[in-house]
Specification:
The structure is a single chain. α4 runs antiparallel to α5. By secondary structure, the chain is an alpha+beta fold. About 25% of the residues lie in helices and about 30% in strands. It folds into five domains: about 100 residues, Rossmann fold, CATH 3.40.50; about 70 residues, ATP-grasp fold, A domain (Dna Ligase, domain 1); about 220 residues, 2-Layer Sandwich (D-amino Acid Aminotransferase, Chain A, domain 1), CATH 3.30.470.20; about 110 residues, Glycoprotein, Type 4 Pilin (2-Layer Sandwich), CATH 3.30.700.30; about 70 residues, Beta Barrel (OB fold (Dihydrolipoamide Acetyltransferase, E2P)), CATH 2.40.50. Strands 24-25-28-29-30-31-32-33-34-26-27 form an eleven-stranded antiparallel β-sheet, sandwiched between helices. Strands 14-13-10-11-12-15-22-20 form an eight-stranded antiparallel β-sheet, with helices on both faces. Strands 3-2-1-4-5 form a five-stranded parallel β-sheet. It contains 19 helices and 41 strands. The structure holds ligand MV4. The site of ligand MV4 has 14 residues, from β9. Ligand MV4 binds next to β9.
Length: about 675
């Protein structure tokens, strides 16, 4: 076994590899970019080498620097993880030349699978089933069009160098062919610098079922069963599971043996994945082979009880495979959900920013969280915005899915938007429970998955208002004790006492303000808040300690976490996360507030308009600035007659909650 390896990756996969290496007594070297100086993978490794600036081209893709780092540290092998250099044949070759073991297959195997047409030719010869199609060298339009007619429409054009659906075009009729070919070639050319195409029979709603294979140098090859990765969006996997629902033992054996045949055909070594399309009749077709450890490998680990990274290290060190085919068994069912910093309601736009609050569900034999970030870390524009992989296991699919839904509801992230509630909607949807899986799942069930949770959320308004009341009281107590930490919400102004025991306030949910009148009744242990939210009135009591709210609403008790950030709040409860804010109080009416409070942005947002000129006199209550936050406009008004000395922002600028917007000088009393 190696005594030291270098991990040429970052994030969760680097951490995951380091964990196994440590358990095996293998020392680890991390590499890192400028953006990752404080990253978890760097802290976890025994040694770490800085390899360049944040952009991957200048750091994690710099094979020369990585090999140099091996020399400097005496690392005997490189684990490339996934992405970056993991399927780069040149890098694997350079490792070999430098006398460093590349933990992965040989150069020839990587190269053979890098071209879809070469891969198909090899698999065809080996007897692996292929989608009917054309994958020859003649790339003339006439030849490709004739092939399409032979195959029969609809056909799919795919870039030979392709991946991730780029340069792929569906062609339904012969007269669309020339236009589609030209478009696919343009896309392939700009993405891969290679516009060669293959033509395939189009399968209308296949499943994506892939088989994990493993081979050693001594002629042993096994399959570790399959994963169903059909639920994808724009060729990004969302939830994967193992085993694939509905597989018969016979189909499993056929696909497993076909995958091993594929691996043997290219003299494979290490971990590999053979992707198949599976149609509704149980026919399966080779799609491509990935010559690396995949993101979703943990579901295979959960159902087989094996550590695939340990297998990789052993095979790369020249050992035999740890187990024979007949020693491998499937036990139970596992899911993986990819937790991303992104906004599902905004076309899954990647989100960047600081993970202001991050609390994954507790790990146990049923719940595994593979992550590379900690609370306070930044999700930057440079790398994939995956926060973690949530992996669950149980005896059967139904129970495992229950585990997944529960763990998702307990996953607490604030500071940036995530796909967690989308994943929750997905995991609890009826078609997913029924395993009605195919590659069009997200489109087919769009309305179900993106259903607005607005109405569900109104039910949580009493919880939000109970929290705000208790927090206001706590702040008042703290202030009385001398502490007065700055916050735009540090006064009771927004939720003021109108009459004895009567509070009024409005809570903003999804940009809509909801009036929530509250009456305080009783005292001491008997004190309750009568909270009216929409048509419902409830009696609420509770205790706030730190971010934990113990609430009793009409006798129903629950514990939720509420995290303030950027002038908003995120409540993590039974139904997942809910964002809310206190509606902007009419600042002009306030007494006793510091200028800083009056002129602070109430929450993160955008300045829409400046309504006064710096230096000009303004009247009391005159509007000075409009900003938009939580999809609502907020007007900042002059608290008294005076002069705006300076605006600190211009229209269009982003501001963070609590930031001072303008300088103001009150007029001298005449
Ligand atoms: C196909 C197909 C239907 N018929 N090939 C998408 C990515 C690329 N690796 C192959 N892909 C597909 N190839 C034939 N002949 C449908 C897809 C496809 C798909 C495959 C797996 C998972 C999700 C998908 C989503 C859309 C299309």
């Amino acid at each position: 076994m190696f005594s030291k390896i270098l991990v040429a990756n970052r994030g969760e996969i680097a951490c995951r590899i380091i964990r196994t290496a440590r358990r095996m007594g293998v020392a680890t070297v991390a590499v890192y970019s400028d953006a990752d100086r404080e990253a978890l993978h760097v802290a976890m490794a025994d040694e770490a080498v800085h390899i360049g600036p944040a952009p991957p081209r200048e750091s994690y893709l710099r094979g020369d620097r990585i090999i140099e780092a091996c020399r400097e540290t005496g690392a005997e092998a490189v684990h490339p993880g996934y992405g970056f250099l993991s399927e780069n044949a040149d890098f694997a070759r350079q490792c070999g030349q430098a006398g460093v073991e590349f933990i992965g297959p040989g150069v020839a195997a990587i190269e053979a699978m890098g071209s879809k047409s070469a891969a198909k030719s090899i698999m065809e010869k080996a007897g692996v089933p292929l989608v009917p199609g054309y994958h020859e060298a003649d790339q003339s339009e006439e030849r490709l069009a004739a092939a399409a007619v032979d195959i029969g429409f609809p056909v799919l054009l795919k870039a030979v160098a392709g991946g991730g659906g780029k340069g792929m075009r569906l062609v339904s009729t012969a007269d669309e062919f020339a236009g589609a070919l030209a478009a696919a070639r343009r896309e392939a050319s700009s993405s891969f610098g290679d516009d060669d195409m293959l033509v395939e029979k189009y399968l209308s709603r296949p499943r994506h079922v892939e088989v994990q294979v493993f081979c050693d140098r001594h002629g042993h090859a096994v399959y570790l069963f399959e994963r169903d990765c059909s639920v994808q969006r724009r060729h990004q996997k969302i939830i994967e599971e193992a085993p694939a629902p509905g597989m018969t033992p016979e189909l499993r054996r056929q696909m497993g043996e076909a995958a091993v045949l594929a691996a043997r055909a290219i003299d494979y070594e290490g971990a590999g994945t053979v992707e198949f399309l599976l149609d509704g009749q149980g026919a399966f077709y080779f799609m491509e082979m990935n010559t690396r450890l995949q993101v979703e490998h943990p579901v295979t680990e959960m159902i087989t009880g094996q550590d695939l990274v340990a297998w990789q290290l052993r095979v790369a060190a020249g050992e035999n495979l740890p187990l024979k085919q007949e020693e491998l068994r499937i036990h139970g069912h596992a899911f993986e959900a990819r937790i991303y910093a992104e906004d599902p309601d905004n076309d899954f736009l990647p989100a960047t920013g600081v993970l202001a609050y991050l609390q994954p569900p507790a790990e146990n034999p049923h719940v595994r969280v593979d992550t590379g970030v900690l609370q306070g870390d930044e999700v930057s524009v440079y790398y994939d915005p995956m926060i973690a992989k949530l992996v669950v296991w149980d005896e059967n699919r139904e129970r495992a899915l229950g585990r997944l839904a529960k763990a998702l509801s307990e996953y607490r992230v604030s500071g940036l938007s995530t796909n967690i509630s989308f994943l929750y909607n997905l995991a609890t949807s009826l078609p997913f429970k029924n395993a009605e899986l195919d590659t069009h799942f997200i489109e087919t069930h769009h309305d179900l998955l993106f259903h607005s949770t607005d109405s569900d959320r109104v039910q949580d308004l009493p919880l939000a208002s109970l929290y705000l009341l208790l927090r206001m009281e706590r702040r008042a107590r703290e202030r009385a004790g001398g502490a007065d930490p700055h916050s735009p919400w540090n006064s009771s102004s927004a939720w003021r006492l109108n009459q004895p025991s009567m509070h009024t306030g409005a809570i903003v949910l999804n940009g809509k303000p909801h009036d929530v009148p509250v009456v305080e009744i009783g005292s001491g242990d008997q004190r309750r808040f009568r909270i009216t939210a929409g048509p419902k009135t409830v009696l609420a009591a509770g205790e706030l300690s730190g971010n934990e709210l113990h609430a009793d609403i009409d006798g129903y008790r629950q514990r939720v976490t509420v995290v303030p950030h950027d002038g908003q709040f995120t409540l993590f409860g039974r139904n997942g996360a809910m964002q809310f804010a206190l509606a902007q109080p009419d600042l002009g009416e306030e007494e006793g507030q510091s200028a800083r409070d009056v002129f602070s942005a109430p929450m993160h947002g955008v300045v829409i308009k400046l309504l006064a000129d710096a230096g000009a006199a303004v009247e009391k209550h005159q509007p000075l600035l409009i900003m938009e936050a939580m999809k609502m406009e907020h007007t900042i008004r002059a608290p008294a007659a005076g002069t705006v000395t300076e605006f600190f922002f211009q229209a269009g600028d982003q501001v963070s909650g609590g930031e001072e917007l303008l300088g103001f000088s009150p007029a001298k009393e005449s």
